[in-house]
From TrEMBL:
UniProt similarity note: Belongs to the ABC transporter superfamily. Macrolide exporter (TC 3.A.1.122) family.
Keywords, alphabetical: ATP-binding, Nucleotide-binding, Transport
Keyword tRNA processing: no
Species whose genome carries this gene: Saccharicrinis carchari
Name of protein: Putative ABC transport system ATP-binding protein
């Protein structure tokens, strides 16, 4: 089934009376279970495109359908609820809550979903252990390295058991070993739980793992390759 369908998706910014066309009339379908990398030079529209898919930014024109939901037509409260139960986000800047421990950061979204304390703790500890942070569950972000913070962010994105994950440069601050561990974990979840992953990336290691690679330039799709 099609998880995501975008039609004529466009985002235009007005900067000092100059129009910036960040994304230009993109048509695309992403089916359930894909492991897709969106690549291209800085400023090509990768992050803007990802943010619109996740409802963090609103298109200037065009439509976004996820499942049976027209995301661009949702009211703000509906959009929050939709993201909570369907989308996991991984940001380049981590976006962890500084006053919470690693475990509490991972638990936070599950708390919003209404899971019990016991369920939240069990899943948070399991995810943090899987990303190699089993001994750092009670550390706050300020006591973690950049790579460790990103691993917490990935665990948090997976905690809600999302239907798909949007990851903006998720390996940008990770060493080779950490990157390999994370990508292997994501690939396993993709294959075993059919979670759809969409990456915005410059990282060749992510591109090598991806089974579909979409090249953007100047906000347009230049190439869309499905690997064998």
């Amino acid at each position: 089934m099609n998880v995501i369908e975008v039609k004529q998706l466009t985002k235009t910014y007005n900067d000092s009376e100059v129009e910036v066309h960040a994304v230009q009339s993109i048509d695309m379908e992403i089916v359930e279970g894909e492991f897709t990398a969106i690549v291209g030079p800085s400023g090509c529209g990768k992050t803007t495109f990802l943010n619109m898919l996740g409802g963090l930014d609103h298109p200037t024109k065009g439509s976004i359908r996820i499942g049976d939901t027209m995301v661009n037509e949702l009211k703000p409260t509906q959009l929050i609820d939709f993201r909570l139960h369907n989308i996991g986000f991984v940001f380049q800047a981590y976006n962890l809550i500084p006053v919470l421990t690693a475990r509490e950061n991972v638990e936070f979204i599950m708390q919003l979903q209404g899971l019990s304390k016991a369920e939240r703790e069990k899943r948070a500890i399991a995810l943090l252990t899987e990303v190699g942070l089993g001994e750092r569950i009670d550390s706050r972000p300020s006591r973690l390295s950049g790579g460790e913070q990103q691993r917490v962010a990935v665990a948090r994105a997976l905690a809600s058991k999302p239907k798909f994950v949007l990851a903006d440069e998720p390996t940008a601050n990770l060493d080779s070993k950490s990157t390999e561990t994370l990508l292997d974990m994501m690939e396993k979840l993709n294959r075993e739980e059919n979670i759809t992953f969409i990456f915005s990336t410059h990282d060749a290691r992510v591109v090598n793992k991806a089974r579909r690679v979409i090249l953007l330039e100047d906000g347009k799709i230049i190439k869309d390759e499905h690997k064998a």
